[in-house]
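During the no-cost extension, the postdoctoral fellow (Dr. R.K.) reprocessed legacy sequence entries with the updated structure-token encoder. One reprocessed record is reproduced below for audit purposes.
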Amino acid sequence: MTDPNSLAQCAEQLNQSGDYQVLARLAPKTTFNDPTPENCHRICVIDTETTGLDTDVCEIIELGYQIIEFDSSGHFYKVLCAKNFLNEPKGEISAEVTRVTGLTMEDVQGHSIPWEEVEADIQSVQLCVAHNAGFDRPVVERYSEVFMSKIWGCSVAQIDWTTLAKVGSKSQEFLCWKIGQFFYSAHRALDDVQALCQLLSLPISDAQQPALSFLLHAVRQSKSLVKASGAPFDIKDDLRSRGYRWNVSERVWQKVIEDALLQDELAWLIEHNTPNPNVIKLSATDSFSVRAR
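Re-encoded structure tokens follow.
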């Protein structure tokens, strides 16, 4: 058997050579910092694996989450619980979903998510975070109302990884590799959650603050939903490049924007022949919900 210390020394030598980068397998933590301060909060980092990508109809086949203590500066402390549940869907699991997740109908047969247990866990948290909250939140809200009253954060949309960490992709696996130099079994719910927790705990930017601190700053900003009603067809590419998306049912371009940037956005719309946008003030619990569509 190879001595773990010898392997670690070899990895360190390769990393220091400048010609190699060695990735370590993620060892999930139960404690990030110790001791836990008095003024601490609870965060739920959550992930779903589903039968498809349409949040209105896809079914959960796996749910994973961790509840962790954190402070207002974005530091994690003790992991209070880590849970993973399989769920047999009413429909089928496609070959594509199996290819990505490794899950088959045989794996989930007879399993169901104990939603009363999940709800009891989630009741105590102040914030839910997912790496793509715009997907995970609408899905879990269809299964339980407990998620509707929570504030949500998104580690894809609310951390400027390109500027802060100087990376060119927001893929979680890529971020874990480039920033954390670790790998894990991706696309299984709890594995993804534990990797995201590790990623959010890592210092980024010149300030060397944990990534979670930048997400918390974004979460605290008040926001509005801007619908570019009456926008001329010829600015659709400009709208798309500014982060607007097409609302098919209402046939309007729209995006969520921080209120601090709202006046500049309205001025831009006026300059581009869209003088009467519809601005809807969002509550803190609306972000990434269907209510913000």
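The chain has two domains: 18-219, 223-292. The chain has a mean pLDDT of 95. The remaining legacy entries will be reprocessed before the final report is submitted.
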